[in-house]
Write a structure and sequence with these properties.
The chain is an alpha/beta fold. The chain contains two helices and five strands; from the N terminus they run E-H-E-E-H-E-E.
């Protein structure tokens, strides 16, 4: 199925990071929302690169099996909330600078869908 997202030759692919560190895999509303969101993105977009940052509890099956989706397991547990929140701070561990991120998202309907990454 062709991508519905514009794939003009002059447009370069975006590199989008998705924070899934908060996810505790218990078939919660948050997990269902994130899985559905990622599957919908996979159906709509084959040109942009998506990296899903996962915690130690989340299995490797969170990302859709598409070449433009990968997971990046992080050495932090979701159930250890203070440690996770510290890990999530922009100046601590998130990939920046030379990785050329276009935006970074925490998929949660109560927050902004995608925020630009400061360089």
């Amino acid at each position: 199925m062709p991508s519905r997202v514009s794939s003009s030759a002059e447009r370069s692919a975006l590199r989008i990071g998705i924070n899934a560190l908060y996810l505790i895999p218990v078939a919660s509303e948050d997990e269902i929302y994130l899985r559905c969101l990622l599957e919908a993105l996979a159906e709509l977009d084959s040109s942009n690169q998506y990296v899903i940052f996962t915690n130690r509890e989340t299995g490797g099956d969170l990302a859709p099996r598409r070449p433009n989706f990968t997971t990046a397991p992080q050495p932090v547990r979701a159930i250890q909330r203070p440690a996770r929140i510290l890990w999530e701070q922009p100046d601590c561990h998130w990939p920046r600078g030379s990785t050329n991120w276009t935006c970074f998202s925490v998929p949660d309907s109560r927050r902004r869908p995608c925020a630009p990454v400061p360089q």
